[in-house]
Design goal:
274 residues; alpha/beta; 60s Ribosomal Protein L30, Chain: A; Alpha/beta knot; seven-stranded parallel β-sheet; five-stranded mixed β-sheet
């Protein structure tokens, strides 16, 4: 491995790691340079195990031992060793997990790949990276096949998304939709029953909807923005509108929590136990 000790936070070699909390800067920098950042020893291990190629590592010295297997397997990749205080100066936050990696960004699946699957979660304009990460995590964990994202949805390979997803983004197929307006008709042409999760007078409750679906049905679950929910266009185009039965005067859940409930109810685990 190539260990390089750095004590200057302005060192150009650390450019991949600058101001990791500045979303607009990171969106531009990471897209232009074809990279993404993995934070924490477990996430780095999972990214590398999934075949993503590292560009460099930024580590506090105490994390060298726990990542020795990864570093040894990539002897030509620079390992920048810094103090934890300097890591905070560079990144803009306290890196309490002490380890970061910059990896090459890859497009691994196209929309057509996902249309060949059976259970998809489809995110409209969900712009919160934490929610996107949580949706990816529950999609994978509850037995669904993949995620489609509208053009304006948050980046699954942004650091916060990866962290909340616990690395599920590296293994779960996902793709970006090229055309928001044709997304629902495209799913229907591919044989999906399209379900819009939304508050509407004619919405069917999830348990009823789950019981009515054929066991071999291809299902696409539409999820909307954190505030306004799904657009009226996607709701009107969907085959059915569904809702989660709620109590205590509360009408809805956070979109990530709602995704987990719906994925369980409509997915293999929930339908098996029904």
């Amino acid at each position: 491995m190539t260990l390089i000790e750095i004590d200057d936070p302005e060192d150009d070699r650390l450019a991949d790691y600058v101001r990791l909390r500045d979303v607009s800067l990171r969106r531009r920098l990471e897209t232009e340079n074809g990279l993404f950042i993995a934070e924490g020893e477990k996430v780095i291990h999972r990214a590398v195990a999934a075949g993503y190629r590292p560009r460099s590592f930024l580590l506090a010295e105490r994390w060298l031992a726990s990542l020795e297997d990864v570093l040894s397997a990539h002897p030509g990749v620079p390992v920048y060793v810094v103090s934890e205080a300097m890591a905070e100066q560079v990144t803009g936050f306290h890196v309490h997990r002490g380890a970061l990696a910059s990896l090459h960004r890859e497009v691994r699946h196209g929309v057509d790949d996902l249309l060949a699957m059976n259970r998809l979660v489809v995110c409209e304009d969900i712009v919160d990276h934490t929610n996107v990460g949580a949706i990816l995590r529950c999609t994978a964990g509850l037995g669904w096949d993949g995620v489609l994202l509208a053009p304006r949805a948050a980046d699954p390979l942004y650091r916060r998304s990866i962290k909340v997803a616990m690395g599920a983004v590296f293994d779960l197929p996902w793709a970006r939709l090229p055309d928001w307006g044709d997304a629902v008709p495209m799913l229907q042409r591919a044989g999906f029953t399209v379900l819009a999760l939304a508050l509407a007078d004619d919405a069917r409750e999830l348990p009823e909807m789950a019981a009515s679906l054929p066991t071999d049905a291809k299902v696409a679950l539409l999820l909307g923005t954190e505030g306004a929910g799904l657009s009226s266009t996607w709701i009107d185009q969907a085959d059915h509108v569904v809702k989660i039965p709620m109590f205590a005067g509360i009408d809805s859940l956070n979109v990530a929590a709602a995704a987990a409930v719906a994925c369980y109810s409509l997915g293999p685990a929930g339908r098996r136990s029904a």
